[in-house]
Amino acid sequence: MNLVRPRPIWRAQCHWKSQELWRFKGLRGIHKQRERVEDRRWPGWEVVVGIEVHAQIKSRKKLFSGEYDSGVTTAFVGDTKKAPNTAVSCFDAALPGTLPSLNPKCVELAVRTALALNAHVQRRSAFDRKHYFYPDLPSGYQITQRYAPLARGGYLKLSRGDVTVRITQLQLEQDTAKSTFHAGRRVSLIDLNRAGSGLMEIVSEPDMRSPEEAGDYVRTLQTLLRAVGSSDGSMELGSLRCDINVSVNRHGQAPGTRCEIKNLNSIKFMMTAITSEVFHHIELLESGRTVPQETRGFDEDKAETFKLRSKEDSPDYRYMPDPNLPPLLLSQEYIERVRSSMPELPSETRVRLLSMGLSERDADVLMTVDAGREVGFDGEIGKGACLSHRMTHDLLGQLAARKETFSDNPVSVKHMGELIDMVQSGKVTGTSGKTLLRHMISHRSLDSPSKLAKELGLIALSRDDSSLVKEWCLEAIEELPQQAEAVRKGNLPVLNKLVGKVMKLGKGRANAETVRTLLLALLRQER
Ligand SMILES: Nc1ncnc2c1ncn2[C@@H]1O[C@H](COP(=O)(O)OP(=O)(O)OP(=O)(O)O)[C@@H](O)[C@H]1O
Ligand SMILES: [Mg+2]
Ligand SMILES: [Mg+2]
């Protein structure tokens, strides 16, 4: 990577004009004409959605100031969330005389993302200033790359269906500070910790045709960002924010006027907001009015969008090239070096998981586990597929209950495989399998499951041990007389209570089906 001396403003302005040219190069083949699909929610209408995603870059330091980032990536930096206004350099606070210095890590992570999105990384990109006045922007402008972005012209294949969304561009830009309105005191509090953190703005073409496709796009993108390690991609925590552009048109007609919905903090709300916006547009158009170009917000309680400002009120950003930052020049060797260090991408992981014999649904579940990359496999799944999936769900559930991630998982692929085989062959019951799994996780045990099963007395009972099972059944009937009476009177669902009791007495070693039959036989005998 090279930084060269700044060029005069008018030279950099030349790049503004080249913006449209790329659109007609190369991408035509990828984007097939979409088939007309009637949506029963809005017959006769076509919905068009384009999304601008702002993803916080997972770098230890901010984009230009060298200050440690304290945003939602704090967990990554390794300390707890910083107190407001404690991670602020003079540059972040826009003190006069301070100058930007580009953080190469942010560039590398953005290039990784661009390559993962099949985009063309521009050997030469440049930084612009976007001016507006708001308390969360101390300098009065945001440094961005609107006119000569880092990358252009990529695409993302959605995980469901045969949908490809084209990526217009990926640009680097600064995050703003965080402002919180205090209704009681009627003041806005500003926390500059986030000011100047690195963002990637990923702009899509208007290629989505339903709220569901938009949701799928954001989900697929989140998985991709996490897989390449460039962003946490959490909408809830604010490390991924979406501006959703929505328009509607009658089938066969040109796209309508778009409205942009801002400040959405979950995929679910985003999909509801799109649906609400679509109905709003249709209502306007059907009553003979036109859709005004607006920026809108989303009211979570009413599940409705509302007007924030109209296009006429939108500020004139007075873009200009940043005179303090020279163009960013990347050599082909640098780009190739980054390309050679790319990890397995989610689309490749998915194909690998499916080729192991997993169903689409199970592959999707595993894909949510650190993008599926850390999921190991010790051989053929074959007939045990159903069981291995259930045990995998148990594993994920138990880790989640302990607030641990899949990377904290202490159970090796070999031991997990052995455990599944033991349950499959009946050496331990399903209940004991769960107990063993819990023990292996909580004790961080490195012993094999078969050794542990012996030590903990969890080996399933053989048929010869039926007298022991009978003893537990009799004990259960004695300890739960009311439930036993209910079953005698024909209330069969209550039998589960007794079965549960027997399982507890036998530490899960008895076979649940055998216990049921025996309990019923005993209760009937008594009569
Ligand atoms: N008719 C349309 N319907 C829905 N979305 C559209 C339509 N036309 C364009 N879009 C989408 O609108 C978005 C435009 O984003 P872009 O960043 O280029 O401009 P902007 O929203 O005007 O600027 P800013 O970055 O300041 O918000 C793109 O994601 C594009 O796909
Ligand atoms: Mg934009
Ligand atoms: Mg926009």
UniProtKB/TrEMBL annotation:
<dbReference type="GO" id="GO:0005524">
    <property type="term" value="F:ATP binding"/>
</dbReference>
<keyword id="KW-0436">Ligase</keyword>
<feature type="domain" description="Asn/Gln amidotransferase">
    <location>
        <begin position="377"/>
        <end position="523"/>
    </location>
</feature>
<dbReference type="InterPro" id="IPR014746">
    <property type="entry name" value="Gln_synth/guanido_kin_cat_dom"/>
</dbReference>
<comment type="similarity">
    <text>Belongs to the GatB/GatE family. GatB subfamily.</text>
</comment>
<dbReference type="InterPro" id="IPR017959">
    <property type="entry name" value="Asn/Gln-tRNA_amidoTrfase_suB/E"/>
</dbReference>
<dbReference type="GO" id="GO:0030956">
    <property type="term" value="C:glutamyl-tRNA(Gln) amidotransferase complex"/>
</dbReference>
<dbReference type="GO" id="GO:0050567">
    <property type="term" value="F:glutaminyl-tRNA synthase (glutamine-hydrolyzing) activity"/>
</dbReference>
<dbReference type="InterPro" id="IPR017958">
    <property type="entry name" value="Gln-tRNA_amidoTrfase_suB_CS"/>
</dbReference>
<dbReference type="InterPro" id="IPR004413">
    <property type="entry name" value="GatB"/>
</dbReference>
<dbReference type="InterPro" id="IPR018027">
    <property type="entry name" value="Asn/Gln_amidotransferase"/>
</dbReference>
<keyword id="KW-0067">ATP-binding</keyword>
<dbReference type="InterPro" id="IPR023168">
    <property type="entry name" value="GatB_Yqey_C_2"/>
</dbReference>
<dbReference type="GO" id="GO:0005739">
    <property type="term" value="C:mitochondrion"/>
</dbReference>
<dbReference type="Pfam" id="PF02934">
    <property type="entry name" value="GatB_N"/>
</dbReference>
<dbReference type="Pfam" id="PF02637">
    <property type="entry name" value="GatB_Yqey"/>
</dbReference>
<dbReference type="GO" id="GO:0032543">
    <property type="term" value="P:mitochondrial translation"/>
</dbReference>
<dbReference type="GO" id="GO:0070681">
    <property type="term" value="P:glutaminyl-tRNAGln biosynthesis via transamidation"/>
</dbReference>
<comment type="function">
    <text>Allows the formation of correctly charged Gln-tRNA(Gln) through the transamidation of misacylated Glu-tRNA(Gln) in the mitochondria. The reaction takes place in the presence of glutamine and ATP through an activated gamma-phospho-Glu-tRNA(Gln).</text>
</comment>
<comment type="subunit">
    <text>Subunit of the heterotrimeric GatCAB amidotransferase (AdT) complex, composed of A, B and C subunits.</text>
</comment>
<dbReference type="InterPro" id="IPR006075">
    <property type="entry name" value="Asn/Gln-tRNA_Trfase_suB/E_cat"/>
</dbReference>
<keyword id="KW-0547">Nucleotide-binding</keyword>
<keyword id="KW-0648">Protein biosynthesis</keyword>
<keyword id="KW-0496">Mitochondrion</keyword>
<dbReference type="InterPro" id="IPR003789">
    <property type="entry name" value="Asn/Gln_tRNA_amidoTrase-B-like"/>
</dbReference>
<protein>
    <recommendedName>
        <fullName>Glutamyl-tRNA(Gln) amidotransferase subunit B, mitochondrial</fullName>
        <ecNumber>6.3.5.-</ecNumber>
    </recommendedName>
</protein>
